Amino acid sequence: GAGVSQSPSNKVTEKGKDVELRCDPISGHTALYWYRQRLGQGLEFLIYFQGNSAPDKSGLPSDRFSAERTGESVSTLTIQRTQQEDSAVYLCASSPRRGLQETQYFGPGTRLLVL
Amino acid sequence: KQEVTQIPAALSVPEGENLVLNCSFTDSAIYNLQWFRQDPGKGLTSLLLIQSSQREQTSGRLNASLDKSSGRSTLYIAASQPGDSATYLCAVRPSAGGTSYGKLTFGQGTILTVHP
């Protein structure tokens, strides 16, 4: 595709339910990133994939959060037993290579609301 | 821990004004710094990327400077237009080495409104 896509665009769920957020990076991009943006706050780094391995999981807020990536394609961020404080926009980004000079291309985000 | 601060938090100007957005970071051990634009309901768009060895980058009406030693960057927007209205974010990437090099640390952004 032309850019990073994410689905669903919006998700409303009840507290305690599990949710899965999907990210399709730009074809050929080896690096993939997940960020969270709470209302009125900056972006928080969650996790970074190089291929299908995750060298940096330091941003995952708790063990309720997990992420997977299949090869160098789609990634899924799973939040188990959602809490109201999980409400945020979850943004995914990809970049072409491991090189540090590469800019990150962002998707439109998934807006998650936990009631 | 790297912290990124953006000033002002919000800015409202009439069309045609030149303006400056500020970004500061606490750890000067960065590899590069990026300025992004975020429009409501949309993702981030990269505007300018400055490598740590560079002093500035220019793209059209935008000019970004970097003073790594003092931990500061500015984004200069010339002849502002209503279409420039958006949230502007700066983000820094740590220096090479370790597992955190993929991670960007963002400021909270400056909300810019340009009035016709």
Count of helix runs of chain B: 0
SSE order of chain B in H/E notation?
Answer: EEEEEEEEEEE
Give the distance, in angstroms, between the N- and C-terminal Cα atoms of chain A. 33 Å
Classify the beta-strand content of chain A into a percent band.
over 45%
Elements of chain A, N to C (H/E):
EEEEEEEEEEE
Low-confidence spans of chain B: none
The beta-strand count of chain A equals: 11
Q: Level of helix content of chain A?
A: under 10%
Mean pLDDT metric of chain B: 92
Low-confidence stretches of chain A: none
What's the tally of helices of chain A? 0
Q: What is the CA–CA distance across the termini of chain B?
A: 41 Å
User: Percentage of helical residues of chain B?
Assistant: under 10%
* Outline type of chain A: globular
Q: What fraction of the residues of chain B are assigned to beta strands by DSSP?
A: over 45%
Mean of the pLDDT scores of chain A?
90
Basic shape of chain B = globular
What can you see in these coordinates?
The complex is a heterodimer of chains A (115) and B (116). Chain A has 115 residues and is mainly beta. Chain A has strands spanning 5-7, 10-13, 19-24, 31-37, 43-50, 53-56, 65-69, 75-79, 88-95, 105-106, 110-114. In chain A, strands 2, 4, 5, 6, 9, 10 and 11 form a 7-stranded mixed beta sheet that branches. In chain A, strand 7 and strand 8 (75-79) form a beta hairpin. Chain A is globular, with a radius of gyration of 13 Å. Chain A starts with a strand and ends with a strand. Chain B is mainly beta and 116 residues long. In chain B, 0% of the residues lie in helices and 57% in strands. Chain B has strands at residues 4-7, 10-14, 19-25, 30-38, 44-51, 56-59, 62-67, 72-77, 86-94, 105-106, 110-115. In chain B, the strands form 2 sheets. In chain B, strands 2, 4, 5, 9, 10 and 11 form a 6-stranded mixed beta sheet that branches. Chain B has a 5-stranded antiparallel beta sheet with strand order 1-3-8-7-6, with no helix packed on it. In chain B, a hairpin with a 2-residue loop joins strand 6 (56-59) and strand 7 (62-67). The chains are: A mainly beta (115), B mainly beta (116). The interface between A and B is medium-sized, with 26 and 28 residues.
